[in-house]
Structures are given as C-alpha cells and as structure tokens.
Design a protein that fits this description.
Elements (H helix, E strand, L loop, with lengths): L8 H25 L3 E3 L23 E3 L5 E7 L5 E4 L17 E9 L7 E11 H9 L4 E3 L10 E4 L2 E3 L4 E6 L3 E6 L5 E5 L1 E2 L2 E2 L1 E2 L6 E2 L4 E4 L15 H7 L5 H10 L6 H12 L5 H13 L3 H10 L5 H11 L5 H12 L5 H14 L5 H6 L6 H15 L3 H10 L5 H11 L4 H5 L5 H12 L3 H4 L4 H6 L1 H14 L10
Parallel strand pairs: 3-5
Antiparallel strand pairs: 1-2, 2-3, 4-8, 5-6, 7-8, 9-17, 10-11, 10-16, 11-12, 13-14, 15-17
Helix pairs in contact: 3-4, 4-6, 5-6, 6-7, 6-8, 8-10, 9-10, 10-12, 12-14, 13-14, 14-16, 16-19
C-alpha cells in the first residue's frame, strides 16, 4: 500500500521556500527596527534540502537579536492566522518547546508568484506576538486546538489563537465590543469585522481613524505588535553566562552570538567549550565556527577533525558551517573534501555547494573536475556552485569551456547559461571543436531572445550552422508547446 504520509518533494520544497522567504522578511524587518538579527537556526533563511543525511539540530528559534538577546520564531503563512503546529503526545513538538517568555513569534504572509516551488514572495507586513502572552491565553483556555486534516497535512495538529484579520487596506471608522468597522480604501465601502469568535470575545487592536493594511490583525485574544524594543542591550558577559546555561539551546545561541564579541576572554571560553568532550557536538561545532571566523586555528582544527568523524551528520554540519567562513584554510578543506572519494557522496556534494556559497575563484578547477564524478548529486551541486561563480568569473569559466574535455563541458555550459553574464564574442572564442560548438549553441539558445537578437548577428557571420541551431532552439523554447505535459 502506498505511504501517503510524506509530502511530495515539490510540495515539501515549496513549504521550505515559504518558510525561508518569510524568515528573510522578518530578518529585514528587524534590521529596519534597529535590531541586530542573527540567523540562529542554521538553514532557516535557505531552501536547501539535504536528501540523504538528515541533520537533527538543536531546536532553537529562527532568529536572535544579538543586541538585546531576544529571539524570534518566524511563521510564514499563505493564509494568515494566528496559529502554531503542536503535538499533545511529544513534548519536544509542542508549539512553545524551546521558547522563553521573552521571545516573540513573527507572522508574515507569503504568496506564490510563479510556477516553480521556490517562486514565493513575502508581504512587507510583519506582526509580532509575545510568547508570554500566547502562553497566558493558552492557560486561560482562550485558544482552539485544531485536529489534523489528514495525511497530506503530515498529521499535524495546531493551536490557534482567535483573531480578526483585515482583508483589505482601509481606515478604522468605528469600534464596539462586538465589531470593528473600516472604510476600504479601494472603494470607500464599509467593512465589518466581528470581534466575537464562538465563545471568545476578541480585544480590538486598533483605534478609530487608524490606517490599516491588508492582513493586519485588528482584533485578537492576545496583543499584536508591529515592533518591539531593542533594549535593554546585552553584553559579552551575558553570552558568556549563557555559554554555561543548562539549556542546549541557550549554550548554542551563546556560542553563535559570541562571534560579535571578539576578545581573548571570549576566545578562551570558546576553546574550552570546543575541548569539552561531553558537550553536545553541535554546540562544540558552533563554538569552533565562531573561533574560525575570528581567525583562531583552534576552531578550524576542530572543524577539520569532524570531517573524519564516523557519523555523517557532524561531517555534513561541518561542511555547511565552512560555507559561512571565508578563509584559505576552509576553502582548501572544502576542496579536499570534494576530491575525497572516500567521503559519502552527499558530503562531497555538500562541499561543492559550500564552495558555491563562498564564491571563491580558487574553487573553479575542483568544481569543474567534479563533472566527471560517478555520483550525479555531486555533479549537480558542482554545476550549481559553478553557476554562482560564473556571475563573477565569466571569462575564466568560458576559457575552461574551450579547454576542458567533452565530459566536463555539460556542467560548464549549464553554469554559463544560468549566469547569462557573457558576451557573444566570449562564445565565439570558445568554438574550438565540434563538441564545443554544440555546447555554445546550447548556451546561446537558452538565453532570452530579445536580449541577444542584435548581438547574434556576429554568430551568423562566423558560423552559419551555429546560428541556425541557436535560432531553432529559440523557436522551440518560446513556443507554447515547450514543456507541455500529457496530464
């Protein structure tokens, strides 16, 4: 019998992308408020998925403000409601697990803007609810427990705090204990929003004459804010204290935040944490990452040691961490890992991905060499990484196209095609043999026709067959039948 409890890869990627886009919007909003946000949960701002090696990280909120120490859990939704996923059977999956009263939940609405799973855009509005207030409402019974709908929802239960949401921009015209009314800006029509939800009466969160925007929460059982204060400020001593806290999540946050407080005292505390064998491996890795960012070799030495660990999860985490540290040492470690055929394929693929994140020219040859790897995942990540480098190093990569073997050219061609940063003359110089001619035809034929229609005449003068191939590709790709499926 098929197992329907797992979402399809595309559906899962779309949900990951919605979460990442939402977290990025919250991050930007916090910056505009004057906070100093730091991505606390690694990967929360990215939609990169590791398919084989599943890293079970320490559960922490998505964002930490280094300046005031408050943490923010981002919740992106396609239809706004004040709700959180929840489990009544697993205490580590309750809606507030790992959260403190001082933390906030940020709500942001995202919309699909294209056909791809990652075609997602966040609304500008970000709204914040205090974890303390959410807990008080739950303890008072002013919440609704929503049972899961079925397998497609991953058997996920939810806690919902009743709220009234403006579906259009407008100006508040009247408020009574039972309702809020506002004049819709688009047509001046009066819209009524009820403050009564079953047995719950919502508190109004707006005032008469106030301008409101689409998806603004105008009534709820808890206060909702657009901002929160970045005070009082915390110090190095605050995070050094957290480094000894009994909570894994607090020690993890401290190890990460101390990157912003470079001093010999901090370095010494972090070295001791790295050397602490009974400490959680991800806290040790985070302490090592902070040391490495500050140029301390104790950090890079420990990260290097994790690359020979028997467990795959610490290896992959070490590789991902190195994508955040731009140095000759980490670049070389990643290149060596990419070449190392004794490593698990996803570790090598992760090294390729990390090199793409760093965008270091020194990685170019290693990435191109990886196009002959037996494992397809390695080749795919190397091509994606090279595409990121191609935006900056187009002439060098074009030179590789002409000089490389036929086995390496598909990845190079794809990377150049995706970057689109070359000139037609660059491609003309790469026409060194029949195989190169075919890949140049692919590169040009996958570009936007309107952009290249004038430059392409240079190709007609030099190579009429190539010109014909490119124009045929343009005709096919721009046709309405291109990509048409039978279902």
């Amino acid at each position: 019998m098929p197992n329907y409890s797992f979402k399809s890869d595309e559906s899962f990627l779309e949900k990951i992308a919605i979460g990442a886009v939402g977290t990025n919007q919250v991050f930007t909003d916090l910056q505009l408020q004057g906070h100093q946000p730091l991505e606390l949960e690694r990967g929360s701002k990215s939609y990169k998925i590791w398919k084989t090696i599943k890293i079970k990280r320490i559960r922490v909120p998505d964002i930490l403000c280094v300046a005031c120490g408050r943490r923010v859990e981002s919740r992106a939704k396609t239809t706004l409601e004040l709700s959180m996923s929840h489990s009544t059977s697993d205490p580590t999956r309750t809606w507030d697990y790992g959260l403190d009263d001082e933390d906030y939940v940020a709500l942001v609405v995202c919309h699909k803007i294209g056909d791809k799973p990652i075609d997602v855009q966040a609304e500008e509005l970000v709204q914040y609810a205090s974890v303390y207030e959410l807990r008080i409402a739950e303890s008072n019974g002013t919440v609704v427990f929503v049972q899961p709908k079925g397998a497609e929802e991953g058997f996920e239960a939810r806690v919902r705090w009743p709220a009234s949401i403006a579906r259009d921009a407008g100006i508040i015209s009247s408020i009574t204990p039972e309702r809020v009314q506002y004049k819709r800006l688009s047509d001046n029509h009066t819209i009524t929003a009820s403050l009564v939800r079953g047995s719950f009466t919502l508190r109004p969160l707006v005032s008469v004459g106030q301008h409101i925007v689409t998806n603004q929460i105008i009534g709820a059982v808890v206060p909702i804010a657009r901002t929160f204060s970045c005070s009082p400020k915390v110090t190095e001593e605050y995070y050094l204290g957290l480094l000894q806290n009994p909570s894994h999540s607090k020690r993890y946050a401290a190890a990460k935040a101390l990157a912003f407080f470079p001093s010999e005292k901090v370095a010494q505390e972090l070295r001791e944490k790295v050397a602490q064998i009974d400490e959680h491996i991800y806290i040790r890795l985070e302490a090592a990452a902070t040391l490495a960012k500050q140029g301390d070799t104790a950090g890079t030495d420990f990260i290097k040691s994790c690359l020979v660990d028997q467990l795959l999860q610490p290896k992959l985490e070490a590789v991902i961490i190195m994508s955040e540290i731009s140095s000759e040492i980490t670049d070389q470690l990643l290149i060596e890992t990419l070449y190392d055929e004794t490593q698990h394929p996803e570790i090598r693929a992760g090294a390729a991905w990390a090199l793409g994140e760093l965008r270091n020219k020194a990685a170019m040859t290693a990435l191109i060499d990886s196009f002959v790897a037996i494992n397809e995942e390695i080749r795919i990540e190397a091509a994606r990484a090279l595409a990121k480098l191609a935006a900056q190093f187009t002439p060098e990569i074009t030179h590789h196209l002409s000089q490389s073997t036929p086995a390496k050219r598909p990845g190079i061609a794809w990377a150049l095609s995706k970057s689109g940063k070359f000139m037609v003359q660059d491609m003309l110089n790469a026409l060194v043999d029949e195989d190169a001619r075919q890949w140049v035809a692919y590169i040009l034929g996958t570009q936007d026709q309107q952009r290249w229609v004038h430059e392409i005449e240079q190709l007609r003068a030099k190579d009429t067959e190539m010109y014909f191939a490119v124009t045929v590709l343009w005709k096919v790709i721009t046709s309405w039948i291109y990509g048409l499926e039978e279902y």
